[in-house]
Amino acid sequence: ISVNGVYPGTAVISYTLANGCAATRTVTVHPLPSAITGYGGMCVATSTTLFNISPGGIWSSVDPLTAIVSGSVSGIITGVATGTATISYTLPTGCAATTVVTVEPSPAAITGSNVVCIGVPDTFSNTVTSGTWASSDYGVAYVDAGTGVVTGLGTGVATISYTLGSTGCYRTKSVTVSPAPTAIGGTAAVCQGNSA
Fold first, then answer.
1. Which 3-state string (H, E, C) describes the chain?
2. In angstroms, what CA-CA distances link 18 with 21, 25, 26, 171?
3. What residues are paired with 158 via a beta bridge?
4. pLDDT in tens, 17-67
5. Burial grade of 54 (CB within 10 A; 0-12, 13-18, 19 or more)
6. What is the model's pTM?
């Protein structure tokens, strides 16, 4: 026999033979946790936080090869590989709520110099196409949004990011802008065997 819980509480289930003899059992129906909330999309190697207002539950991932739970009570979910994963929130009673999260691919690592000089352009690149480049500080390092050409404008450190428009997944790279040396002085011509 299958017993379906309808409302929280207790119910007596009985089984009666034709002769009137019966067996009974009391069944307790526990409430489900509330629905899981929070943004269910993330990128590989990035995290999102899910929430549940029912206290005392434990978070877990049914698909840990796609997404893992960073601490069973935190609700922080980290993408491991592209795909979908079912995340559950289980109360001590065993009752659980589930939701499906989607893990999108992240761009590849950004290639380019760690140090650029003021006024000297350097091209940053990524093997994944159709992304947009940006700088955390355009007063230090300007980057062309389409080409990835970075030009140092002032000394300091800036973070260059490359974001995929379709998913919002991104990679970053820190770049240090150093002052260029002053112009080399002296004569521009010298005779063979002589010094200037």
1. CCCCCCCCEEEEEEEECCCCCEEEEEEEECCCCCCCECCCEEEECCEEECECCCCCCEEEECCCCCEEECCCCCCEEEECCCEEEEEEEECCCCCEEEEEEEEECCCCCCECCCEEEECCEEECECCCCCEEEEECCCCCEEECCCCCEEEECCCEEEEEEEEECCCCCEEEEEEEEECCCCCCCCCCCCCCCCCC
2. 7, 18, 22, 72
3. 175
4. 999 898 989 888 888 899 999 987 899 999 999 999 999 999 999 999 999
5. middle
6. 0.70
